[in-house]
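The instructor's notes for this session suggest beginning with a concrete chain rather than abstract definitions. Hand out the sequence below and ask the class to guess, before any prediction is shown, which regions might be ordered.
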Amino acid sequence: PMDSSEMGPDSWMKIVKIIADNYQKYDGFVVLHGTDTMSYTASALSFMLENLSKPVILTGSQLPIGMLRTDGKENLITAIEIAAAKENGLPLVPEVCIFFENDLLRGNRTSKINADNFNAFRSYNYPALAHAGIYIKYDLPQVYHPVSRKPLKPHYLLDRNIAILKLFPGISPQVVNIPGLKGVVMETFGSGNAPCEEWFLNMLKEAVDRGIVIVNVTQCRAGSVEMHRYETGHKLLEAGVTSGFDSTTESAVTKLMFLFGHGLTPDEVKEHMNCSLIGEVSIPETFRP
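After discussion, reveal the predicted structure:
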């Protein structure tokens, strides 16, 4: 057993290895995981398990499994049923998901939003894939299906030189100083806005010029970054900041780790951040990278 606050890239690699080694033996996989970093793990696995065609369902509990009122038993039983569910011989949900408190959510779209209640996870920018009541009702049009049936390709390369920069009123240059990194997920205000002070924009531009990829995601629970909407967003575009659209912070962080881990250049990483690799982000039709 491991507390989920201790989970990270090494643990993700072990999970991927176990799934890859046993991939042909089972119809699906259930990963029991602590709630605190479950969204990070689910996001990472979605990128690391290329060509996945079987369910990988993460679940856990808010109350320990040994407690009388634990939510863990129902979560586990339903996760197993979902991982085994098939239609016409094919898995119903061939992607990495989180099942928690009656809802099946795309793993790389989720965030933990509650520390006290059983409904701990939400996917604000993408609908639930299934809801479990007396029956499990699947929303199959929302489920991600691989374009082509290729063999599973597990990935184990991740670059940890990634940071999260959360903006706040009165932020200082000491906080924004970001040397020695490859990627930064910058949590901005509203639809992707930030201060327009000269020192701030200069520091961002200097970082981008050094090859650091800065991805703009919103601090809001729901919604998308639209840097063309306000002047402050335009300033970030001019500084070379890349839009994260409606990505969660967890997904943006693990995606950057994955892309830089495979030796991509900053320009190649930016190009991939402007694409949906596995359903982790919604790219507006009007967007032109």
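Then share the key points. Residues 9-21 form the longest helix (13 residues). The CA atoms of residues 56 and 214 lie 30 Å apart.
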